[in-house]
């Protein structure tokens, strides 16, 4: 919850600080209070680098976090912990007497298992399904988070100057069209922050009730059914601005915001149900033996971290290829939707059966 709240605040902050000369002309504009060089266009470095201010503020916040971590955060591993009085600068290591041969042998026998052996020990018939589900879930949701701002910030146009072939028609068809919504960074960040805040409220007040009524697996399957629908209809947002470089008036503008709200709202609702459900299912798949749940959680974090890297990379490549070929929905239809459908099928066919099987009494 705390990390999600930070993401919402970060989105809002990034949008507010982007293009500061336009957003805050009284401070950074031509007659702004911070325009000490009296430049005609505004603060010079902000004019040349309109998106540098969010990065500068982000770097400052990271520096504060690093200082707090170094000065006050306590080590959780006992063998790596420092002295309580703060005088210890080196990790504590166990010492043994060299004259005691049996102690030396027993010490080497009780060494900690390697990382690979720890990972392999967590891969069982009960932990594999939720791990694969978490991987597939993060694979397409991370790509959505990366591609959507690119898509809705792309200028709206009846054609794309990046088309690699000259035979593309300027008239949109059911599957061949391009362009975006021409939204500013400020509008994008505020809109995403609003739905992120609504997602937090849903997770805190509504999700527990739905979980008790539908069960964790049922709620997870419901969320997986929403994702493909969102990915299939998202590219068609471009048609609301087709042929209009400035759609700030009329019914087209109203319908554009309604459609965008349906897409982002559906994704937020599905994410709010899927992420905590996946975490609960992964935790319940581990046995209650000492240290097993911690290992499963570590492996789960590794799996989701890998998916969060692969997802945006593959999605970005597919999106760029689709824009060049005049099919802006290529990444949505042939990557995100396919992965989402695969995740739903995997959960229904395999993961649900696993949780219907009884757990051995020894593992309870």
From TrEMBL:
SUPFAM superfamilies: MFS general substrate transporter
Transmembrane segments: 51-73, 131-154, 174-202, 214-234, 254-275, 296-320, 332-355
Keyword presence, rRNA-binding: no
Segment forming the signal sequence: 1-23
Major location category of this protein: membrane
Record's GO cellular component terms: membrane
Record's bilayer topology term: Multi-pass membrane protein
Origin: domain of life: Eukaryota
Cellular compartment(s): Membrane
Keyword Transmembrane included in the entry's annotation: yes
Keywords: Membrane, Signal, Transmembrane, Transmembrane helix, Transport
Database matches in PANTHER family: MAJOR FACILITATOR SUPERFAMILY DOMAIN-CONTAINING PROTEIN 10 (PTHR23504), MULTIDRUG TRANSPORTER, PUTATIVE (AFU_ORTHOLOGUE AFUA_4G08740)-RELATED (PTHR23504:SF6)
Protein's recorded name: MFS general substrate transporter
Organism per entry: Neurospora tetrasperma (strain FGSC 2508 / ATCC MYA-4615 / P0657)
Lineage of the species this protein comes from: Eukaryota, Fungi, Dikarya, Ascomycota, Pezizomycotina
């Amino acid at each position: 919850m705390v990390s999600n709240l930070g993401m919402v605040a970060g989105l809002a902050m990034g949008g507010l600080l982007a293009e500061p000369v336009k957003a805050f002309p009284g401070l950074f504009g031509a007659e702004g209070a911070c325009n000490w060089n009296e430049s005609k266009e505004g603060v010079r470095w902000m004019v040349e680098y309109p998106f540098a201010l969010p990065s500068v503020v982000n770097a400052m916040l990271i520096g504060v976090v690093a200082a707090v971590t170094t000065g006050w955060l306590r080590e959780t591993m006992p063998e790596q912990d420092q002295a309580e009085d703060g005088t210890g600068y080196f990790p504590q290591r166990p010492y043994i007497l060299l004259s005691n041969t049996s102690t030396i042998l027993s010490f080497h026998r009780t060494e900690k298992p390697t990382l690979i052996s720890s990972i392999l020990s967590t891969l069982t018939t009960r932990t594999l399904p939720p791990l694969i589900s978490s991987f597939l879930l993060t694979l397409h949701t991370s790509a959505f988070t990366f591609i959507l701002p690119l898509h809705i910030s792309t200028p709206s146009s009846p054609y794309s100057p990046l088309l690699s072939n000259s035979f593309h028609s300027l008239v949109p068809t059911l599957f061949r069209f391009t362009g975006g919504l021409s939204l500013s960074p400020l509008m994008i960040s505020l809109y995403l922050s609003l739905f992120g805040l609504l997602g937090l409220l849903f997770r805190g007040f509504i999700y527990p009730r739905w979980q008790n009524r539908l069960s964790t697996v049922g709620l997870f399957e419901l969320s997986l059914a929403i994702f493909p629908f969102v990915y299939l209809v998202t590219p068609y947002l471009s048609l609301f601005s087709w042929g209009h470089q400035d759609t700030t008036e009329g019914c087209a503008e109203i319908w554009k915001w309604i459609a965008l709200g349906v897409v982002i709202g559906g994704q937020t609702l599905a994410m709010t149900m899927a992420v905590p459900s996946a975490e609960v299912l992964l935790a319940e798949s581990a046995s209650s033996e000492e240290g097993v749940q911690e290992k499963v959680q570590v492996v789960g974090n590794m799996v989701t971290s890998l998916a969060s890297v692969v997802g945006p990379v593959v999605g970005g490549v597919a999106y760029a290829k689709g824009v060049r070929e005049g099919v802006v929905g290529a990444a949505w239809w042939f990557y995100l939707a396919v992965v989402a459908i695969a995740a739903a099928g995997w959960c229904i066919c395999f993961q649900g059966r696993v949780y219907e099987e009884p757990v051995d009494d020894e593992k309870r």
